[in-house]
């Protein structure tokens, strides 16, 4: 009989953390799983550690992927997964013992949900972590499919190593795509575009370790600009179905950086009718309104793209108080 869950854990030069990550899976209260360890050309002692662990527990399968990159390693795991559900795990994180049990129970009882994540307990390994702290506070603050739908263009809505999803999603919509973009975010946006409902359990079932070598800190594919390129591509597809004024939009934020990022939307075929800003009398190459001058709801569609700390919450609150409905009259992207 195939296992109920396949846990996919890619690793590359993870000798210092791999054993702890694996043990946190082996100690799960839910026992019907296989653990696929995918070596991605490690040069340290990771392979020896993985081999020793595999010898002790028959649920571990050790695989290798010669194409460098976490997307290729993840796809290797997906191709070899036998479980009805697939769980993601990183080599430098640890899962709480009840994680798989609670996530499997959630999906078994909610056939309309395709993917479930959870909150994370953030473990910083250096001092410069203010940005990550803000992200964790944000991503832990919402859980429902509707909230995830609305927040998809702000940032990745579900922390990738927390996800557990139905394997048939991979069979229908594909695995990880490799390119100059964050592969985990692209995959979630692709699944959401296909109509997959996602949710998160409102408790931290994963310790998310933030080290200086984490790809999100060192790889250009996880830069702010790479995220905005990915957002622009999928926002165009979302706008075609959800924006009654498509392709026309108004961008909230008339600063230089925001206007540069807004050009990514134009490259995808969106037509920016003008900008909205907090500075009265600001001039740009397009019409620019002071935020107090926006029309009544139902006249325009607004895409706030300001990334300044705290601005997103203020803009969202202002629009909602003005009668604008999220997903109908505006959607956040900053």
TrEMBL record:
Sequence intervals crossing the membrane: none
SUPFAM superfamilies: Nucleotide-diphospho-sugar transferases
Domain Glycosyltransferase 2-like, chain residue ranges per copy: 6-172
Keyword Transferase attributed: yes
Keyword Glycosyltransferase belongs to the record: yes
Keyword annotations from UniProtKB, A to Z: Glycosyltransferase, Transferase
GO molecular function: glycosyltransferase activity
Domain of life per record: Bacteria
Pfam families (UniProt xref): Glycos_transf_2 (PF00535)
Family (UniProt): Belongs to the glycosyltransferase 2 family.
Protein's name in the database: Glycosyltransferase involved in cell wall bisynthesis
Species for this entry: Tangfeifania diversioriginum
Phylogenetic placement of the source organism: Bacteria, Pseudomonadati, Bacteroidota, Bacteroidia, Marinilabiliales
